[in-house]
UniProtKB/TrEMBL annotation:
Intracellular or extracellular location(s): Cytoplasm
Entry protein name: 3-methyl-2-oxobutanoate hydroxymethyltransferase
Enzyme superclass (EC): transferase
Species per Swiss-Prot/TrEMBL record: Campylobacter portucalensis
Molecular function terms, GO-annotated: 3-methyl-2-oxobutanoate hydroxymethyltransferase activity; magnesium ion binding; methyltransferase activity
Cofactor(s) the record lists: Mg(2+)
Gene name linked to the record: panB
Amino acid sequence: MHTKKVTINYLKNSKQKLTMITAYDALFASIFDGFVDMILVGDSLEMSFGGKNDTLEASMDSMIYHTKAVCNGAKLSYIIMDMPFGSVISKEIALKNSVRAYKETNADAIKIEATFNNLEIIKHIIDNGISVVAHIGLIPQNSRCESGYHIKGKSDNEADSLLNLALNLEQAGVTMIVVEGVVESVASKITNSLKIPVIGIGSGANTNGQVLVWSDMFGFFDKFKPKFVKRFLNGKELVQKALTNYIDEVKKGEFPSKEHYYKG
């Protein structure tokens, strides 16, 4: 449990595995705050809470709104804001949106889904004083153009390309790298080749830490369960059981009882 604000220096020097979880509001951010090292305000909210098939409809306005809420609830964990689809398509647009994210929220860093095509854009943002977390491997914002979600690093060429990209991102100055949906051996090689933290999701246990979407890991989102998700709580069942108890007590006249009355 953290008692002081988590900084990038702490994350880079930690000898323990790092933990990251998503949050989208002040309530859950306050519950997670200090327990996890990092909170990610992910565009995954479009799927988990918006009922969408992908993350592409997230906007700068919505991401800033949710990041503000998370920052209101979390004062200790390191806060990372996802940059939505289309927000970093050129140096000028990317810098404008990144500056806005920093000015309008208290996020410690922004996260960008990275390829060789936007490497110079990412470096441009960093050179202007903004911390960037790079996301490589399975890139959710490419799901439509790639016709779904596919594991990366299966071929030697793809594995070499991912390692080369990670090394170039480190040289560009990124704060850390999230590696998603990458073959375990490739994710391990990337982690061992870099000096900055590597956070995995669906990429094995040999990265410097892990990240999961909170509604997946606590069993609230059950439309599908990715192979890499472990459910640490049957949240949906527990809430529905409590809800059923509430309904039963209201119908039977047991709630509210005298202890819940205001007395004049």
